Amino acid sequence: MHPAKSVIFFTTTSGAGYGLLIWLAVLAPFGGLPDGAWFTVAGFALAIGLVVAGLVSSTLHLGHPERAWRALSQWRTSWLSREGLAALVTFLPALVWGLAALAGGFAAPAAVVFGLITAAGALVTVYCTGMIYASLKAVPAWHNGLTRFAYPFLSIMTGAGLAIFLLSMFSAAPSTLDTLVEAAIVLFLAGAFLKLAYWRRIDTAEPVSTAETATGLGAIGKVRLLEKPHSGTNYLLREMGFEIARKHAAKLRRLCLAFGFAAPAVLLLLALVTSGALPVLAFAAALCAAIGIALERWLFFAEAKHVMTLYYGQSAV
Amino acid sequence: MTMLPNATTTKLGLVIDLDICVGCHACAVNCKEWNSGGHSAPLTDFDPYGAEPEGVWFNRIHTFEVVDDVSGASQTVHFPKSCLHCEDAPCVTVCPTGASYKREEDGIVLVNADTCIGCKLCSWACPYGAREFDEDQGVMKKCTLCVDRIYNPNLPQDARVPACVSSCPAGARHFGDFGDPDSGVSRLVEARGGFALMPEQGCKPVNRYLPPRPRQNGGNETVAPRMLDTQAAAATDKAGILARWVDRALSR
């Protein structure tokens, strides 16, 4: 599948923003968040800013962005519609949460309640994003239980990296930071295993459809494409005929693991055992995670094959 | 509305006879021409007279070679493919705006170009590659089963079939109601063992393909017709006396 930059930017950026919102909401009831209006403003600005940047970017790949509001109507059947609706609906409790936190602090009951509602909305939104891809039977690589779990998981994982950076810049309580850093290390390591499991799955899974089932000519013999319907290219081949060579994919996978999972875990471990330089290490960890997850998303698209390609020369998908 | 109708009693669709199709592409060209006016117009072409032309087409003809594992005999099959107007169309349910819909009255799957936002998710959902994005207009387009022809009062009754069906010179395409067990298409499918494409994808396509008929010679497909031996110069020794004399005379 063609990896569209706007979609990669959207899912990774909004995902991280929603993850940060979830961590802020979860840490608040334990009094773990720093006091003061500056932290509140900075936290919301970062999280909401990332979410909005991502959502705006997602409308850029539309043929008619001005009609995007229509995408909220088919929530009964369409995961894309549900995602849009969930994203917009989540802004409402987020707004109330922000005002309550500014007025009474993050630990105030009103703030805690609306924080958790916002976190629930954020989780639902990211789950819907994952389901857009996981629900497509025509892309067997995506149509499995790992995809619907991966999107929320990676959102929470990258959000943790951002939360650590944010909290370290505002001198949060060391006990909170330590717990958060430990949790984040576990998440990054677990994320690596999740990614490896997904890659193993797509490398070894049995094909769902073949050129024989696509043409129905399997009874006669082995089917292979003799002539494409056209000598040039077309929308279908550009959108769904994207192929990446195995050796390039292997290299990118290693980079993804290194930047997206190994480096953040190592940097955060370093932060745990040394004292001081946490903001720098946290920033480096968040940056590495951003690069790594962008690679991960790129590969998620690039390595997925569409069964439509069975009509264009693939023998099994 | 992207909720699929519960079940349509009328299921309009096509039968494509892979035994007869000669791969002339007349159906694809006529489809393109018909849809250059009317419901889906215009069907965009980019760089049409240039070095790398490409465009939006609803009907595309692939050509496959099928090789028998046992005998090694191969067969060329031309394979026209357009929207199969599935009963359980995934392109309809994934559409976030409701622009992609299946008509209750006849089962035709259409795109409302006024409400389509061009998110392309329907083309991702379709396993058959039946939907294309028109880069110029920013909307998705697909086979309409010539909805603007089959009910068109300005056409004579027997012309009210999809353009591709009317233009096939070999008679490899048929149009009708699969919901009616006595219709021409239903009887054709039953008689010839018509099949659906990729049934494992669960779309329940309506269009059916008729398989190539088995060879009539029946049997020794690997023996080629006897070839004439090419006569080498030395071989003239074995030829008759007159032939040798003529050969000598002409070689002077």
Q: What would you say this structure looks like, in words?
A:
The complex is a heterodimer of chains A (317) and B (252). By secondary structure, chain A is mostly helical. Chain A has helices at residues 5-27, 37-60, 79-104, 109-134, 145-169, 174-204, 211-215, 235-240, 246-273, 278-302; one strand at residues 222-227. Chain A has one domain (5-312): Formate dehydrogenase/DMSO reductase domain (Formate dehydrogenase/DMSO reductase fold). Chain A is built from 10 helices and 1 strand. In chain A, helix 1 packs across helix 10 (278-302), helix 5 packs antiparallel against helix 10 (278-302) and helix 9 packs antiparallel against helix 10. The two termini of chain A are 13 Å apart. Chain B has 252 residues and is an alpha+beta fold. Chain B has a single domain (12-210), classed as Alpha-Beta Plaits (2-Layer Sandwich), CATH 3.30.70. Chain B is built from 7 helices and 11 strands. Chain B has helices spanning 26-34, 90-93, 121-125, 147-150, 163-167, 184-192, 241-251; strands at residues 12-17, 45-46, 54-55, 60-67, 74-81, 100-102, 109-111, 131-134, 139-142, 173-177, 208-210. Chain B has a 3-stranded mixed sheet. Chain B is elongated. Chains A and B meet through helix 3, helix 7, strand 1 and helix 8 of A and strand 3, strand 4, strand 5, helix 2 and helix 3 of B.
